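dumping these here so i dont lose them again. two proteins, back to back, each one seq then structure tokens. dont judge the mess
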Amino acid sequence: MFRVVGVCASALLGVAVFANCAHATDEENTSAHFQSTFNWQKHPAFSAAYTGPNSITPAAESMYTFSATALLGMRPWQGGEVYFDAEAVEGVPFSSNLIGLGGFTNGEITRAGGTSLTYYRQRLFLRQTWNQGGGSTSVASGPNQLANTYDKNRVVLTAGNFSTLDVFDPNTYAKDGRTQFMNWGSWTYAAYDYAADARGFGWGAAVEWYRDDWVLRVGRMSGPTEPNLLPADMALNIHYGDQVEVERAHQIGGHPGAVRLLGWHNRAVLATFNDALTWLQAHPGQYTGPDALFAARYTEQDKYGLGLNIEQELSESTGWFLRLMRADGRSETHAFTEVDGSLSTGLAIKGVTWGRSADTAGIAFMQNTLSADRRRFLAAGGISYFIGDGALNYQPETNFEGYYSWNVARKIWFSPDYQFILNPAYNADRGPIHVFAFRLHAEY
């Protein structure tokens, strides 16, 4: 059975996912979990009428990422949990840079920085729980989750260095790029410009209030000092990313599901596309790279978006998910990717149907769109952080992904994956792109 909001829970690389369980879990005071993931991807040559500074290379090429993570936890006092994650990563993206797509094909690539292993602290945070009755909920031991029993009604504080996605936008079937869908558009909303450093983590705090079948989440996180760079902006009273999420769990025909509504608001020094376009038109022949965005990046801007996340178990072996989000799209990307509207939906099917209970097959459809302001800037030859072909014959960027996660040995999974991308970087003059991949993932 898939793990969905209910009586008991387990954790997957920092994200607690709840499920029905037959027994309680013994409390533990320390935990140590480890993971390693290798992801190799290749695209054959594809058609391109032209290629610009931030275009994915139309010639055949390959990319890879490797990560190894130690996830350590301890309980310093009753109700308190402290977690520390250390990670080593390496990898090289397509085109030797992270460019040419709105929905990138590998969720690990933002953390990789070349062919030599780079070591860094991934997370260091406190989780404090205040129980408020309403029955018990057991959580199994897992990465960034000590085995414990909580009250169903409770308040949970998470504070320190972690990812916004550790708390917000959970989804049973499409959440983890190391074990589920690889594309960015399936493990969260592609249009969710959530505050984070270049690796996807930040400093801040989030509070969750669990009450019967409802959950309310609020949080504030640090963004980068400059868009999509690594140093964190710690002036959280001036520059920040705020989010509010409401979740309602339900049952349909005895099958669990959940509906979530997420709103977010970022404030940072950002360029608006209209200001950047004005600068670009005033400096003909003088434009190289993202100069127009740099020149227009001089005042605080507000970014915001609203998203809907639905998951539903259809049978004991099949689950469905849907994410929809729309962002305002007036200003440049702050911390995630070049998407202003996103849709993703798909199915995950457990292999119990064919006698492989630890296997999973998944299929997904994703479509990303741009705001009118961003489209005008790109069509005029503008270059933003991740995309810019020098011109734009605009069409939504569309992706189909299918994967099969094969449990080859205890705690080891091999996953072939295929992605078909129409209109890469929203340009109908380029593509389509076929991306073939395999992933090897191990947990200890």
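---- next one ----
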Amino acid sequence: MPSKTSCDIAIVGGGLAGSLIALALHMRRPELDIRLIEASEVIGGDHIWSFFGSDVAAGHRWLVAPAVAHMWRGHDVAFPAHGRALDGRYYSILSETLDRHVRATLPSKALMTGRRVAALTRTNVVLAGGDRIRAQGVIDARGAADLSALDLGWQKFLGQELVLTDAHRRVRPMVMDATVAQQDGYRFVYALPFGEERIFVEDTYYSDGPDIDPIRLRGGIAAYAKAQGWRVDHVAREERGVLPVCMGGDFERYWNSGGTQVPKAGMRAALFHPTTGYSLPDAVRTAAMIADLPDFDGEALHDRLFEHAREAWRGRGFYRLLNKMLFRAAEPDQRYRILERFYRLDPALISRFYAARSTGLDKIRILSGKPPVPIGRAIAAMREKRA
């Protein structure tokens, strides 16, 4: 016999965005009865989320600090004509650390894993099998909606945690090593030192299409490790993914494709950095905002989250413009020149860019000077409009 349950807030999707909302509500509003509903048996899937310290406001660090697995002081970048070490802290959250933190923090009845959702509205969730949950408000955080509503390029990657026979001697993350052969768009290698003999290496591409060739990317990682003089004992884990790089589109069509009048968060609300595809800074800001709301009625919750996401979309046109220059003004194997030039700029400007908080002066500085792409194609890309 299907059951019926009531609660204050039901969050559908136990990925990063949904988990942070549940944690923020429990920690700031412990009187609320919440449910975090996830189709799989684990929270967070199998991912690594990394972020710069400046991506998260000081007043919000309480929300992510307990889930951080690794922290480093500073990071490096490398390009054919330029290399640089930058200060500032860099953090990584592993899906297993997020899962442990959620399970240790939320009341047992709040966490509903292994429960697939058949349908939802802004006040009701119907689970596969017929069980129903009625809430003041429902938040859908199940990941991307219909991406065909957006004009996209893609950041695609495959990463492996390598266990080495000897120490790798890298003490800081290599956030972007573009000295590798350029192919399938802008390519770089990303490396996180997890221990003296453990390092996570990711082969990453800014490409026109989302398809991944895992055999080729594994070969790229093996070749990079060999070039560094590392001898691999075995691969402890592997992760692959594709993130959207947004150049435009119809925000309202995208929002409604995930369900009309349903409150949304995370990728489902188009809350991700247009250039990096990263969603963690937005997920933190959204969770903190929701925890401070005075009203969790489904209609009010929808209107506030819709306006929050729409404001972010409207405020990020500059990044979508830069993405057009990257994908449509530069030849694929020359795209690295845009990032190479960018990483010669002021470190504070770079930090604000990744946090999606670029100032007007930042934008002028980024666009000033001779562009690292053909001028005619740059102008055409900036003027281009696509449905």
